[in-house]
Structure formats: structure tokens, C-alpha cells
């Protein structure tokens, strides 16, 4: 009985680790403010109609298995944690190297309104 509980516990911990470690890794460099609960999302700087300053920059680990929607959702959450008022996605591309056939690269700026 003890052995089966130990196996079950090990399996559950392994699955938990697997599911929490999956997904894109987001790298943020910049200032931090109190967390935001809601932010605006932009895909072009021309769409931002208010004065702002860039408080940070983000990118993801370049993994070919990253799904753009997952990267977007993780970046929005990270922008909220940094206290941003909005996020501007600045670049989406595929980085091809000799080692990797194609890695998704997403870049974004986290902004804070100045007005």
C-alpha cells in the first residue's frame, strides 16, 4: 500500500511539474509599479492616442513550440505585474538558425501613460 501511494504521489508531482513548466518563458527588463488589473493592448504605436513612456521591454524564449496566443497572454499578464497601463506588440517573427528550423520571436513594450 505504501509503495503504490509513493508511486501515485511521484506521478502527480511529475505531472504538476510538467504542466506548470510548459508554456512560453517571458523575459522582462524595465521598471515596476504597483500591479495593474486591466491593460490596453496595441499592435501599432500609432494607435496609442495618449502620451506615454516606455517602462519596460519584453521578449519570449525562442522555442518553435510556442503558440502566438499563449505568448500574447503571458506577455499581457507580465505587463500587468509590471504595473503597465498598456502593452504594444512591436515584432512577431520566426528566427531560423542552423540548429533550429524556426523559432517564434515576439517583442513588446510595456507603457505607462504620462497624462
TrEMBL record:
UniProt superkingdom: Bacteria
The protein's name in its UniProt record: Uncharacterized protein
Organism: Pontibacter akesuensis
Amino acid at each position: 500500500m505504501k509503495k503504490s501511494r509513493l508511486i501515485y504521489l511521484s506521478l502527480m508531482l511529475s505531472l504538476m511539474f510538467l504542466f506548470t513548466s510548459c508554456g512560453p518563458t517571458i523575459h522582462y527588463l524595465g521598471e515596476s509599479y504597483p500591479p495593474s488589473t486591466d491593460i490596453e493592448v496595441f499592435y501599432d504605436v500609432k494607435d496609442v492616442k495618449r502620451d506615454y513612456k516606455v517602462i519596460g521591454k519584453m521578449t519570449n524564449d525562442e522555442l518553435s513550440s510556442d503558440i502566438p496566443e499563449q505568448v500574447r497572454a503571458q506577455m499581457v499578464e507580465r505587463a500587468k505585474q509590471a504595473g503597465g497601463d498598456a502593452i504594444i506588440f512591436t515584432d512577431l517573427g520566426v528566427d531560423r538558425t542552423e540548429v533550429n528550423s524556426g523559432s517564434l520571436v515576439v517583442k513588446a513594450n510595456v507603457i505607462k501613460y504620462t497624462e
